[in-house]
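From the methods appendix. Each design record in this collection lists the tokenized structure first, followed by the designed amino acid sequence. Records were kept in a plain field format so they could be parsed without special tools. The example shown here is representative of the layout used throughout.

RECORD:
FOLD TOKENS (307 positions):
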């Protein structure tokens, strides 16, 4: 049994398979071809933080594949009343076939997985957001082909998305040019997680313009992630210059794409001209969450499928 708790849990070969599979599953969806390999399977979704995309993509995706879903939040389950995570894992995994969790510390999802009888998927933790990077990479490949050897500019917080980009770069052979305000840098040891960050996959720039120079993909995220709301005012001041604008896109490669995992705050981490402009692929990126996660759930439950 396999879990998907961080990007480093899978190899380059597994990602190549998943991207091919996601393309096929997306094609079937787009051509109204019924594909229901997960009939009678149930996905439990546990949300300890808010979500729009993650919930809709997993829920719609599971129904499309013939399965069903159970949606739990901290507020409406015993998770919010201090039932130990180990006990919740034992119980939930006896009644369902696969579990997706969005929570705070990575340690919590790891503990859940340790006591779970079924595969567990990380739907975002403070440290990582692997399903999002899976969708981002698939979107890049759809638009531009292989990402190997390319440069991704990360402008903003050294957060869960940034950490996951670093893991992806080490595994898939591209480079991330990171620019964060001082005090919000990536913690390389934490980003490495279960894997290792290779030295040439990551370069730091104090000036975000320099990080964007020549980049094939420019990407950013909110200044304040969920769980860090108390730091909002301090972050607004610190991040003022880390706003992806047209000048940054102009120094990137001429065919550079712009991505944002969403939700976005126009006028903060990105200008409307960029996110609503011709280089932005954010809506494809959001939609692709569903297609890649369908491929992911199929892989975790059924293994590799011949066609
Ligand atoms: N990008 C993403 O995970 O969005 P939600 O918070 O809406 O799920
Ligand atoms: N970094 C953001 C991503 C939201 C999808 C957060 O953790 O809130």
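DESIGN:
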């Amino acid at each position: 049994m396999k879990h998907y708790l961080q990007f480093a849990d899978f190899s380059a070969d597994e990602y190549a398979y998943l991207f091919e599979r996601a393309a096929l599953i997306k094609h079937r969806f787009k051509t109204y071809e019924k594909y229901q390999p997960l009939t009678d399977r149930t996905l439990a979704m546990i949300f300890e933080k808010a979500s729009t995309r993650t919930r809709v993509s997993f829920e719609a995706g599971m129904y499309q594949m013939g399965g069903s879903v159970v949606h739990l939040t901290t507020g409406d389950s015993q998770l919010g009343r201090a039932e130990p995570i180990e006990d919740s894992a034992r119980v939930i995994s006896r009644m369902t076939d696969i579990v997706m969790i969005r929570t705070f510390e990575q340690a919590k999802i790891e503990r859940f997985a340790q006591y779970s009888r079924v595969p567990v998927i990380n739907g975002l933790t403070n440290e990582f957001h692997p399903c999002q990077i899976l969708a981002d990479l698939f979107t890049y490949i759809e638009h531009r082909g292989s990402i190997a050897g390319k440069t991704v500019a990360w402008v903003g917080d050294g957060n869960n998305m940034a950490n996951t980009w670093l893991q992806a770069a080490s595994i898939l052979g591209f480079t991330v040019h990171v620019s964060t305000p001082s005090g919000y840098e990536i913690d390389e040891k934490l980003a490495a997680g279960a894997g290792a960050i290779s030295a040439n996959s990551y370069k730091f720039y104090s000036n975000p313009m320099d990080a964007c120079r020549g980049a094939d993909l420019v990407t950013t995220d909110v200044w304040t992630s969920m769980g860090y709301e108390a730091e909002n005012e301090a972050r607004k001041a610190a991040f003022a210059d880390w706003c992806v604008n047209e000048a940054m896109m102009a120094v990137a490669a001429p065919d550079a794409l712009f991505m944002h995992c969403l939700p976005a705050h126009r006028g903060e981490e990105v200008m409307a001209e960029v996110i609503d402009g011709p280089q932005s692929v954010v809506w494809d990126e959001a939609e692709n969450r569903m297609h890649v996660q369908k491929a992911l759930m199929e892989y975790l439950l059924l293994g590799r499928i011949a066609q």
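APPENDIX NOTE: The chain has a mean pLDDT of 97.
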